[in-house]
């Protein structure tokens, strides 16, 4: 066996695949009928600045392996960051021992090359050579620029809650005893700043803005990021409550994205098998306005959630969860698809230290045809929500209830900032009441939405 480097440095994709093959072979020698190895080698860098100085700087390399085995239909799983031959032998013995104490399940199985098909993997441009070569000094400089520009945007911004820049690059591999072998590589960069605007009597209003991207040239200019964060903070000065009312609510792209992220579990095959989804037994029904199409796409080029293969080695794909208002797709990994008598939708997600589960890749509402300004003009009296706090989302019922900040709308214009209110409804009602979908879809992460107008929600105020 070729041992990993002793310096603890990163491993390339080919080395990970070799280690995965060796781990699977050791598991079979230890008594596993089937085995699967999932490996990662990641390098990360994060700098956080505050008050014009570095507050925290961290660099790390993570290497790890997760080993999953089947014995008599029962499953065992172990993981470790020790990739030496002796450790792999011990992992194999431990995984097999766990499987022998586990309950058999006929749905336990690993995908085969036949399940995966012979389609060649697409080049999704997930590795940025410029980001790999980006000096640490430039990353620190960007973080300092974010804070400096934010502080200079308005005299009422006298301090920040910090600015941060992070990068990550690495490789992953998956190998199983059925002959499936996959490798992938990627890079990410993120940046954000949190300015604080003085609002009188020691009160501060917070603005936050940032994003995560695969490639450096797709990250907004740090000055633009800082100015947008500062604008958000200053716009909240003078915020007040409004009386309780049932009114139209405009969800900003950030808030709409947060909502659809919360909704994801309702589309999970596991939740449907357990009958814990608020969409149980509604497959094929109209559950939303015709303007709503909800997509999860694992193959968007240069997108932060994209991968050519999912966490079990099956090809990712574009899944239409809601198609023009109709509930169209339930998401499955390999295990839950077998239980349901269905096929995997390429929706298994995992890290080396976890078992596969059902998740999303790039989840978004398709853009509509109306500008945010045109949507605002449709509201005679209502609320524009652009930040949320505590309370939350009930994944079983779909109930939505969040503390909210934003702006009161009168005659199609934002009139004053609002805070100290709660916005509440139910997700099925919200989906049915989507009255307009904006044309402003942008990905700042792996979940995105354009502006959405909900025709009526409850605003509970003072």
How does the SSE layout of this entry go?
Layout lengths: L12 H17 L4 E17 L2 E19 L2 E7 L4 H16 L12 H4 L12 H4 L3 H17 L4 E20 L4 E18 L5 E3 L2 E5 L8 H14 L9 E7 L1 H11 L5 H6 L19 E4 L20 E6 L2 E2 L6 H7 L7 E2 L7 E2 L4 E3 L6 H6 L3 E13 L5 E12 L2 E14 H6 L1 E4 L9 E2 L3 E9 L2
Parallel strand pairs: 8-15, 14-19
Antiparallel strand pairs: 1-2, 1-4, 2-3, 4-5, 5-6, 5-7, 8-20, 9-10, 9-14, 10-11, 12-13, 15-16, 16-17, 17-20, 18-20
Explain this structure to me?
By secondary structure, this protein is α+β, with helices and mostly antiparallel strands. It folds into 2 domains: 13-229, PmbA/TldD fold (2-Layer Sandwich); 239-462, no CATH class. It has helices at 13-29, 85-100, 113-116, 129-132, 136-152, 222-235, 253-263, 269-274, 334-340, 372-377, 427-432; strands at 34-50, 53-71, 74-80, 157-176, 181-198, 204-206, 209-213, 245-251, 294-297, 318-323, 326-327, 348-349, 357-358, 363-365, 381-393, 399-410, 413-426, 434-437, 447-448, 452-460. A hairpin with a 2-residue loop joins strand 1 (34-50) and strand 2 (53-71). Helix 1 (13-29) crosses helix 2 and helix 5 runs parallel beside helix 6. The longest helix is centred in the N-terminal third of the chain and has 17 residues, at 13-29.
């Amino acid at each position: 066996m070729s041992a990993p480097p002793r310096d603890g440095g990163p491993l390339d994709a080919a080395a990970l695949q070799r280690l995965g093959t060796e781990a699977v072979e050791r598991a079979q020698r230890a008594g596993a009928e089937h085995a699967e190895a999932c490996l990662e080698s990641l390098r990360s860098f994060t700098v956080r600045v505050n008050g014009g100085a570095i507050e925290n700087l961290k660099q790390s390399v993570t290497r790890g392996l997760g080993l999953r085995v089947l014995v008599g239909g029962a499953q065992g799983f172990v993981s470790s960051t020790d990739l030496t031959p002796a450790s792999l032998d011990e992992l194999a013995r431990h995984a097999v021992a766990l499987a022998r104490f586990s309950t058999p399940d006929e749905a336990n199985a690993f995908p085969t090359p036949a399940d995966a098909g012979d389609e060649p993997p697409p080049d999704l441009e997930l590795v940025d050579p410029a980001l790999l070569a980006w000096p640490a000094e430039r990353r620190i400089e960007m973080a300092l620029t974010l804070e400096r520009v934010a502080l200079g945007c308005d005299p009422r911004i006298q301090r920040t809650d910090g600015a941060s820049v992070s990068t990550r690059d690495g490789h992953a591999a998956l190998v199983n005893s059925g002959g499936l072998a996959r490798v992938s590589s990627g890079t990410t960069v993120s940046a954000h700043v949190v300015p604080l605007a003085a609002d009188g009597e020691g009160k501060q209003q917070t603005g936050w803005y940032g994003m995560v991207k695969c490639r450096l040239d797709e990250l907004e200019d740090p000055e633009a990021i800082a100015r947008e964060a500062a604008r958000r903070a200053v716009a909240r000065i003078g915020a007040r409550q409004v009386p309780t009312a049932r009114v139209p609510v405009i969800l900003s792209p950030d808030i709409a994205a947060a909502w659809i992220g919360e909704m994801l579990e309702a589309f999970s095959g596991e939740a449907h098998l357990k009958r814990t989804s608020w969409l149980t037994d509604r497959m094929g029904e109209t559950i939303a306005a015709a303007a709503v199409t909800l997509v999860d796409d694992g193959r968007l080029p240069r997108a932060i959630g994209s991968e050519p293969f999912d966490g079990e080695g099956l090809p990712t794909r574009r899944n239409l969860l809601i198609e023009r208002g109709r509930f169209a797709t339930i998401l499955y990994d390999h295990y839950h698809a077998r239980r349901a008598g269905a096929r995997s939708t390429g929706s298994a997600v995992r890290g080396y230290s976890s078992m596969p589960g059902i998740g999303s890749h790039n989840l978004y509402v398709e853009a509509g045809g109306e500008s945010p300004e045109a949507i605002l003009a449709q509201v005679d009296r209502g609320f524009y929500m652009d930040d949320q706090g505590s309370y939350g989302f009930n994944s079983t019922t779909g109930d939505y209830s969040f503390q909210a900040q934003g702006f009161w709308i009168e005659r199609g214009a934002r009139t004053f900032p609002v805070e100290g209110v709660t916005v509440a409804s139910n997700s099925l009602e919200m989906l049915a009441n989507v009255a307009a979908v904006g044309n402003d879809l942008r990905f700042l992460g792996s979940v995105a939405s354009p502006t959405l107008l909900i025709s009526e929600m409850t605003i509970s105020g003072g």
